[in-house]
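Subject: Protein record for review, amino acid sequence with backbone structure tokens
Concerning: The relation between a protein's sequence and the shape of its backbone.
How to read it: Take the token row as a discrete description of the fold.
Enclosed: The protein record, placed directly beneath this head.
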Amino acid sequence: MRLIFLTLWVVILSAQDLVWQRDLPGEVLTGGTGRFTWGRRVLRWSGAEYREVARATHGFDGGGCVFGKDDLILAERPATGTLGRLVHLPAPAYKAVVIDTDVELHDCVPTTLFGRSGFLMVHRFTQVRFYWLTAGRWQMQEIYSIYTASRQGGLAVFDVDRDGRPDIFCGNYWVRSPERFDLPWHIFAINLLHAEPEDANFILAPWQRELVALQRERAPAPLRRFTPQSDPQQLWTEASTGAYQRPAAIASQGAELWIGDATGVTAWPSGRRWATGHTVIALLPGGIAVGPNRVTRWRPQPLRK
């Protein structure tokens, strides 16, 4: 009887997976965050269903973020070159409002700095910028420019030195917040992985006082965990494990991290796998893995007793 029940469970889950798999006609996706994904079109998701809310003739850069509740920050790609328009797409119409021009957007994180509500972004793999909206107008402050042999990718906000002010992770470094907005930020190396152009183009995620880093352009790429020393201004201690193929997305689920790469979704540290054999560029709420021309359920729900 137990064997029959387990067999029935597997059949039901397999049938559910088939229902959750569907095509995204003509869509080559480059980025995703929260309940949105984008390529040439911007799609807003509800479970495994989606609707188009905006589009750009030449598509959008891979970086972008949700601003406020449902607004979007994206960068439109130009007809030639790499520098396009940075735009605010306010809900519910999602009609583009130009924030800045000659921008190349790789990472974006909404945040509040010294009472100013806005977002941080990485421009051209070298520059951390902060944009904020005041009195209906967008303003910009350059936080720091980083020049190494490698592209500086990855962006996260975390109070590293526990002084109550948000610091910034970007590429190989953490950037310490000053005491006031008009004072300079200071940069400290976490690691020295920047000898080759792709070395420091990370996905970054703060994790239990550590920093998790995966090299986006590497195949294979280990999951690296960096732990600060008693003085976080010194190089951090590194531990690495696993091998991922051009990882593009990371999400937390309880005591595990879920990583989407060119081969599917892997849970760390358990090693459980879903959406095997499919490229994943975004992990959405509700266990949805999105890749070019495909959406798949990546976390089957257990049957209720």
